[in-house]
Amino acid sequence: MFERFTQAAREVVVHAQEEARDLRHGYIGTEHLLLALLREPSSVAMRALDRLGIERDAVRSDVVRLVGEGPPNRLGERDAEVLRSIGIDLDEVRRRLEEAFGPGALERRDRVRHGWRRRKRCESIADDIPFTGHIPFTPRAKKVLELSLREARQLGHGYIGTEHILLGLVREREGMAARILAQRGASDQRVRNVVIDELARGGGLPGRSA
After folding, report:
1. For range 188-193, the mean pLDDT
2. Domains in the chain, please, with CATH?
3. I need a labelling partner for 7 at 20 to 30 A (CA). Which of 88, 89, 126, 174 fits?
4. What per-residue confidence (pLDDT) applies to 123?
5. Which residues contact 32 (CB under 8 A, 6 or more apart)?
């Protein structure tokens, strides 16, 4: 199913992982998907959010206020100094790990605790998304991705773009992202109206968009 995602929508999934990691959260939630949508400047979703007055810095502040940030990495500067004193360069270790396993490999504790796990058969769009650093999607975030597929189908689109992810976020209604949007005056129906208008402006009903 992931092959139906536009390039911009795929970037949203990657950015959501980065947002979760930056906030030191051990999960990818609806709030991280919303923050990721706000990083795609030329996308339909970003244009709609801009018209709705939704700004990334404000949303990030809301997330920190409502959820908080995770604990700092266990290995701080003092630990690094101790390791350097016995000939271990933590930065070099981190660089080599990230070369081999991708960004943030040193912080992926589940690899140490559980080892490598074989993928089971895909049961949802989220399960179908390629390796994302072992940061799991929450059930609500998975539901948003499922709803994005439904939104695309209802609009007669053969792809899943950023606009469908945004519509999935508000259609889900109870996640952190939907709550933040509603508190900022972007109700489900208002978001839907603006997205539809943006698609109409760009000839995206039906068609190919971002």
Report:
1. 94
2. 2-70+125-201 (1.10.1780.10), 77-114 (no CATH)
3. 174
4. 52
5. 16, 17, 19, 20, 23, 25, 141
